[in-house]
Amino acid sequence: MIEYRFAVNHYNWSEVPVEHMNASISRQMIHGETMTVARIRLRKGGVVPLHQHPNEQISTVESGRLRFVVSGEEQTLGSGETLTIPPNAPHLVEALEDSLAVDVFCPVRDDWIRGDDAYLRGSK
């Protein structure tokens, strides 16, 4: 029988650093070997401008309401709802209320690790 050993890391969101991207958006990130999970807080009126990335994304709204526009298709999500965003699909997000979302990306968001995320830092 083959025995596999995996590195297991334990996190508590209350201890993960909060990065304030702009006046309306902050995030916390955890990077694994093949994926990134992030908690994104958006104040009402906050916008993640139109962008795209090679990562598949799954977004779950934990609280509040968010309007997503993905490849020109608009959907509004509330608490407990989830949306999948394919790799390279142009998308934007607008907070209709103060909101908390949990986003999972695969592969890892190398652009975020490098700090190559000016689209988030300059938005409303």
Structure in words:
By secondary structure, the chain is mainly β. The chain has one domain (15-121): Jelly Rolls. Helices cover 7% and strands 47% of the residues. It contains two helices and ten strands, in the order ββββββββββαα. The chain has helices at residues 110-114, 118-121, and strands at 19-20, 25-31, 36-42, 47-51, 56-63, 65-70, 73-78, 82-85, 91-95, 99-106. The strands form two sheets. Strands 1-2-3-10-5-8 form a six-stranded antiparallel β-sheet, with no helix packed on it. Strands 4-9-6-7 form a four-stranded antiparallel β-sheet, with no helix packed on it. β2 and β3 form a beta hairpin. The protein starts with 18 loop residues before the first strand and ends with a helix. The model has no long low-confidence stretch (mean pLDDT 94).
Short description:
With about 120 residues, the chain is mostly beta strands.
Name the descriptors.
124 residues, mainly beta, Jelly Rolls, 6-stranded antiparallel sheet, 4-stranded antiparallel sheet, 2 helices, 7% helix, 47% strand
**Element string (H = helix, E = strand):** EEEEEEEEEEHH
Structural class: mainly beta
The profile of the biggest β sheet is: 6 strands, antiparallel
Radius of gyration: 15 Å
CATH superfamily: Jelly Rolls
Q: How many separate helices? A: 2
Overall CATH architecture: Sandwich
Mean of pLDDT: 94
The parts where pLDDT drops under 50 for at least 5 residues are none
N-C termini distance: 55 Å
What's the number of domains? 1
Strand content: over 45%
The rough form would be described as: globular
CATH class division: Mainly Beta
Number of strands: 10
Strand order of the largest sheet: 1-2-3-10-5-8
What is CATH's topology name?
Jelly Rolls
Q: Which range best describes the helical content: under 10%, 10-25%, 25-40%, 40-55%, 55-70% or over 70%? A: under 10%
